[in-house]
Amino acid sequence: MNDQDFERGLSEALRQASSELPENTHRYQDVRLLQRRQAKRRHRVVGGLAAAAAVTAIAIGSGPMLQGLFQNSLEPAMNDASGAAGSAPNEQLDAESDRSASADSAKLRAWCPERPKRLGDPEPTGAGRFVPAGAVTARLCGPERESVTEMSRSDEVLERGIDELVSALNALPAYGKDDCAGDGSELFDLVLGYPDGSRVVVTFDSQSCGVARAGEHYRKGASGLDDTSAPEQQSAGLDIRTTFEELLREQKSND
Amino acid sequence: MPATSEEPDVAMGMSEAVNGTVSDAVGEAADNVAEAITETTFEEFVGARSQALLRSAYLLTGDVGKAEDLLQTALAKTWRHWERANQSGHGEAYIRRVLYTTYASWWRRRWRGEIPTEYLPETSDRADAYTQATERATLMRALAELPRGQRAVLALRYFEDRTEAETAKLLSVSVGTVKSQTSRALARLRSLPTLTALIQEER
After folding, report:
1. Which of A138, A221, B37, B191 is 20 to 30 A from B18, comparing alpha carbons?
2. Is the pLDDT of residue A179 over 80?
3. For residue A61, what pLDDT is reported?
4. CA of B149, closest CA in chain A: separation in Å?
5. Which of B169, B55, B26 shows the shortest CA–CA distance to A42?
6. Can you say whether the dihedral through the CA atoms of A154, A157, A158, A159 is positive or negative?
7. In this complex, is the C-beta atom of A41 within 8 Å of any C-beta atom belonging to chain B?
8. Are strands A137-141 and A187-193 parallel, antiparallel or unpaired?
């Protein structure tokens, strides 16, 4: 095969490889959300810089006069607090900016997969850590838009209470070989976004057996545990869908 | 590949440097006005062309999730400048440039040490789907072995059918660099027996 043939073949292969990518019907809304967040952050940073410049200008202009007037009474307190007073605002601004940037990145990662994949045959994979800690966003994605409640249909991203949600997920009981294994008809994806831009998808059955899967790990109790579960396990169940919606409601009421 | 600017052509504007709360109100109002003016056309553009842009992003990143991230970031960066960028009908070229430059900068900053996604690929019983998936995997593995500069050059030259001069302009490098990167990338790909066999089969 000569060079020209190879190059033509490569062109065709590149086109074929990228020809069947999933459609994201919410892309415009996702971009709009991201752009607004970036605009808010930009204004906050510009406002902070302007305020810092104004404080500096006032301090330089009135410094000599104020120095004589207040030196005796203020000096000890200023010395005590000099470290914190001098650095705190900037550190706070940076930290806020970083957190916001991380959340933006994770929000991008929190887009919904096309539809939840079937759970397959659950296997006993033990209990304990189910998803990594440190998630900063969560989004609930339903199988069919109509079947998801009004609240989770709004494509809103949860940004508060994620640590509690992750802890509860990691406390889900182990799936046992004799446990209920049906897929049910209400499969959801909970998409957790992390500051580095990665995501973890927890697929769960919210109605019948309450099986949840993250990668190759399975847990049960994702629809809450009923009375037939062992007493010690009943408190460990987590109705993921209801919990997510409650957290989202709380987040909205605080905004 | 030399470092490139993440937001080319259109300057961010120093007018942002105004005072305190007034700046917030003025800035946000300006953004709202800009948004109202450009929203329809930008939305139309996203609806009509973003899937094509996603294909380029996918060839660069080799992962659908990363490609979506990259594309959305490029679109969000472009939003504020859309009216100006699109005035002469070059809006898409502008976004493509943001896409490629963002890719270059993200690769350095963000995608190392990523927690692997736990999302399982869809399985299929169909033989043709299996073959397609295998072929795609072969190609994407081969591309993954290339440095990001070479990969970007290949995507532009052989997927987007850009000339050497256009590729050089988009990536802010010289035509000589495009030639040498292309040559090295092709040599590397030709040395991979599985890829050569795949391309030979298709022809």
Report:
1. B37
2. no
3. 52
4. 17
5. B26
6. negative
7. no
8. antiparallel
Which chain A residues are closer than 8 Å to B17 by Cβ? 46, 49-50
Please list the alpha-helical segments (H only) found in B110-190. 127-144, 148-154, 164-171, 175-190
The alpha carbon of residue B73 is apart from the nearest alpha carbon of chain A, in Å, by 7
- Nearest CB among B115, B155, B200 relative to A1 is that of B200
Q: Is A14 in contact with B199 (CB distance < 8 Å)?
A: no
For B130, residues 6+ apart whose C-beta sits below 8 A from its C-beta are B124
Per-residue pLDDT reduced to its tens digit, A209-220: 788 999 889 998
Tell whether A95 is within 8 A of chain B (Cβ). no
The pLDDT assigned to A72 comes to 33
| Of residues B47, B83, B102, the one with CA closest to residue A31 | B47
Measure the CA–CA gap between A167 and A130, rounded to whole angstroms. 9
What is the distance between the terminal CA atoms of chain B, rounded to a whole angstrom? 32
Beta strands in A142-211 (DSSP E): 187-193, 199-205
What is the pLDDT averaged over residues A22-43?
77
B47: pLDDT strictly greater than 70: yes
Distance of CA A155 to the CA centre of its chain: 13
Does pLDDT of A58 surpass 70?
no
- Least CB–CB distance from B47: residue in A28, A30, A108: A28
Closest residue of chain B to A107, computed from CA coordinates: B69
Query: Pick the residue with more confidence: B87 or A169?
Result: A169
Contact yes or no for A215 and B158 at CB 8 A: no
Taking CB atoms and an 8 Å cutoff, what residues of chain B touch A14? 59, 139, 154-155, 158-159
Dihedrals phi, psi of A184, to nearest 5 degrees: 75, 180
Do A215 and B114 count as a contact with CB atoms less than 8 A apart?
A: no
Q: What pLDDT score does A53 carry?
A: 55
| A194 lies within 8 A of chain B by CB | yes
Q: Exposed, middle or buried by CB within 10 Å (0-12, 13-18, 19+), for A76?
A: exposed
Residue in chain A nearest B74 by alpha carbon:
A31
Distance to chain B for A139, nearest Cα, Å: 15
